[in-house]
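ping. complex inputs:
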Amino acid sequence: MWEAIKDRETGRIRSNSFANRFKSRRILSLQLSNRKDFVSPHRGSVNSLQVDLTEGRYLLSGAADGSAAVFDVQRATDYEASGLIAKHKCIFTVDKQHENGHKYAISSAIWYPIDTGLFITGSFDHYLKVWDTNTAQAVVDFKMPGKVYRTAMSSMAMSHTLIAAGTEDVQVRLCDIASGAFSHTLSGHRDGVMSVEWSTSSEWVLYTGGCDGAIRFWDIRRAGCFRVLDQSQTQLGFRPPILKRTAVGSKLSSVAKSSLGGQNRLKTLQSKQTGSQSVKGSSSAKASVEKSRQKRIHPGMLSTLDRATAHYGAVTGLKATNDGMYLLSAGSDSRIRLWDIESGRNTLVNFETGRIQTNKGIQLDTSDDPALVFVPCMKTVKVAFGMWSGRTTLMLRGHYESVNTCCFNSNDQELYTSGSDRQILVWSPGGTVEDEMVQDEVAEDKDNWSD
Amino acid sequence: MKIVRADKVSFFWFFEKEKKNKMKKRTNPESSTSEAKKRRREEDDDKVGCSHSAIEDGAVSEDQCLPLEDDLTFSDTSVALRMMRAQFPRIDQASIPPFILQSQLYSSVNDRTQVDRELECLRREKVVRVFKLNTGQDDHAIIFLDDYLNQVDRIVKRMEEKKQSDLEIFKLFKMHVLDSKLEPSIGHHELLSLLSLGGKVKDAHITLLINAGLLTRQLIDPDMYWFAIPSTGKLWKGLSQGRNELLSLIKRKRHKEMFLAELEKKRLRFSPLDVRFHVRDLIGSGHLKTVQTTSGLIVRILKD
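pong. complex structure:
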């Protein structure tokens, strides 16, 4: 460690790589923490966890018994075993006994991204409530047409305060806190929407994954989605290759080929329509039916005809990387796919998951610098993968039932996971600070002056 | 055709060499080469190419395999595909083309991302074709394009014998659809438009294709079809039953593990495919794992 500090001083390694080296070492030694513990007040499986985005200090959890609780991650409420184990009890909780509390399970609890004064919970009782943290009162209520599966707010929104809610209804609703009303709905999915995620590069772009297996990209300023991810459109590598001109066979097969390689589905659907008109061999009855069907739909809504699926089952989890370039999606076909956002293609990185639970949404998390993905896989195993190789670096076993969420705190390199066994577990890097300092020195200690 | 002839040669050679009496006619040539290959396979995935050459030459002893490996210029996935195709068990009753499951590829090549990417390249070059199966969650079958086209021709011939009319739809299918649509599924309108390139096409023609077994409707979406391999329905049932049988065989043991050598001698009652096929498939899909011990490889059920 001292060697590394000296290198940084002399400029041999950059300060970024210096910090990353320690972070990676700490993350790779993650284990169930023997110094920190959350005392979970929940009496149902914990469905959602989030650390607040401003300070990284407060952890919000939502559970299936309709209770939401807030914990302080950095300061413990009391200590046990003569100060060695820190117990963190919840600061407050809102549950069914609360006069405005949710009646059924809470599926998603998120912080207001600007400060910790508000938090938002979405529940299976069809309500989405906005709470004031300091008084623990529900400030605004939104009634949804179906069970709320997931809610999300954009962390980089400068001009809007919209909450995107994915419900069992096919439409994604955007709720505005400032006015207390729905601003608009996004339609295009053909089944319930299980996961919603805002983009980390633009405040107007929303990604949603549905139970029909499709992932759609929406620009909320326009009607209809502008991209539907298709798992058969692939690219081999981080960035798409330079486009080659494909050999033109028959007119229609060239159109079909361009639709395979094309990036904008709207354009290809329209060109397919014109292509079918121009080819003589096509049965005219079919072409006219297609034409008339497409004529009735607004051009922005042509994407509803696009049936490409990103997964063979429902899309249960979505996570965009912090640099805004890639999107991870987990599906109930037990596959995790990494998508390049710019080109909309599947990068074909194979993540070796066992099985992922199919009935509930799961929460994935990513870490930037050692580029890892934390995925809750079925019962008890929580796996950390290298993002580009897809290999499992760590298997963390500690939960008694299936794990629902992972939340990574990059400030301390700690991982919080929650599961159906009602527990919130903390995984922290093993070893103490003294061990880290001493690690390199043992090799350096050479007695080269003795005979 | 080449493989058939080589098998006859190797059959005699191994018949003389083998001391144990495994006189099961169907799988004898493959199973005797497979034992030695199986042991070596676990150590080094890249040496798989030599078995391919062993079957072809027939007279090469297994020790001389190693230097031949340097001459092979396949990528790893390609080598694994050809080797597994050569080892496909011969089932005499039905004419089934040799196919490889994707989970078998995952278990025989180390890096799964590399497998995915190389498979994608092979698919784009039209060397292989990938089909989605309806057994289990994420099963895909990989078939060499030549084998698939042979199977389609066999079906057409059979339908000709039954005096079916309108058979040029199959030619259109092969020429236009198979050539341009490389994914495992196709939409109704796209299918019609691609087939129409060769003439007028009615819904009745599509029914003919479905009856022949080349297309199946998707359960979720009435407008989409999966491509399918004709006359293999009984095989998929056998596949899932064979998997269950093999897993229950190992689960019944006290410590839920078995020696691989012992496992290979067993014969499955419900599946026409042999144990070697199923073991590769189960390792790749994460149900089993292999552990190296001092007395050989052990296969263990993976708890999760």
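The longest helix of chain B spans residues 233-251.
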